Structure formats: structure tokens, C-alpha cells
Amino acid sequence: MTGLAFWIVGALCAGLAVLGIAGILREDRRRRTHGKRKQGTPPGQGDQLLHAGERIAFIGAGNEDASRVWRVTRDPQDYAKGFVPGRNRKDDRT
């Protein structure tokens, strides 16, 4: 192996090592800070409205808006009731 090839291979190995160490450090930092972020909304009274809209373009039909609004309760107990299958629900449906 010539002197130039030796330096090229050495530089490539050193670069890969630096990238690997940087990736490990970034993943470690992400794992430590991920649990500290608050997710979701705080429990409370009332509902929260979620609006999802998108623009749809049809050939020859022009642009049309397609949107939908979901109503999500802030009460954790009422929210959990929505995941119970219909055959297992009690009669006190709201």
C-alpha cells in the first residue's frame, strides 16, 4: 500500500469513527431529554376541537377543501370510555 492510499484509508476510518461517536452521543442526549417533555393536554372540563384540513386538486374540477373536525374530551375517564368496544359498554353512554 502506498503512502497516499494509507492516508486516505486512515482518514476514512477516522471520519467514520467521529460520525459514530457523534451518533451515539446524540442518541444518548435524546433519550435523556425525551421523558422530560410534556405530551398531550392537561386533564380538565370541556372538549378540545381538532381541525384537520387539506386541499384536494382534481383534474378539471378545480381545488376543493376537505376538512374534518373532531371533538376530544379533556376528561381522562370519558376519553377512556371511547376505547371500550360497543358490546361491553354499560347503558350510561354519553
Set down the secondary structure blueprint:
Layout: H1 3-34, E1 47-58, E2 62-73, H2 76-81
Antiparallel strand pairs: 1-2
- Give helix and strand order, one letter per element, not per position: HEEH
Structural class: alpha+beta
* Estimated radius of gyration: 27 Å
- Uncertain ranges: none
The average pLDDT value, as a whole number, equals 78
Proportion of β residues? 25-35%
Alpha-carbon distance between the termini? Answer: 78 Å
Helical content stands at: 40-55%
Per DSSP E runs of 2 or more residues, the count of β-strands stands at 2
The biggest sheet, with number of strands, parallel, antiparallel or mixed sense and barrel status, is: 2 strands, antiparallel
Strand order of the largest sheet: 1-2
Global geometry: elongated
User: How many H/I helical runs?
Assistant: 2
Short description:
The protein has 94 residues and is α+β, with helices and mostly antiparallel strands.
For this entry, give a set of tags.
94 residues, alpha+beta, two-stranded antiparallel ribbon, 2 helices, 2 strands, 40% helix
Structural description of this entry:
The structure is a single chain. This protein has helices spanning 3-34, 76-81; strands at 47-58, 62-73. With 94 residues, it is an alpha+beta fold. The protein has a domain at 47-86. The chain is elongated, with a radius of gyration of 27 Å. It starts with a helix and ends in a 13-residue tail after the last helix. 0% of the residues are buried.
